[in-house]
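Quick one, probably user error.
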């Protein structure tokens, strides 16, 4: 079953981001930039969680839910 166009594009974008973050992480590790590698790794984990549906796409501010 094919996903709706917007959903398919979002999945493609998230997959691309995950791939780029993986490459950036390896580059940071190769240059021994430990903090940078860690921060990129956290972004990699975040996009992985979003892809698996374990995290929302947006973090809602409490003010948004009161409206």
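Nope, works fine. Designed sequence:
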């Amino acid at each position: 079953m094919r996903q709706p166009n917007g959903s398919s594009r979002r999945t493609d974008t998230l997959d691309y981001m995950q791939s780029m973050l993986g490459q950036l992480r390896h580059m940071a590790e190769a240059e021994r930039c430990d903090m940078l590698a860690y921060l990129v790794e956290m972004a990699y984990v975040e996009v992985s969680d979003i892809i698996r549906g374990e995290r929302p796409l947006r973090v809602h501010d409490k003010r948004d839910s009161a409206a």
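The chain has a mean pLDDT of 87.
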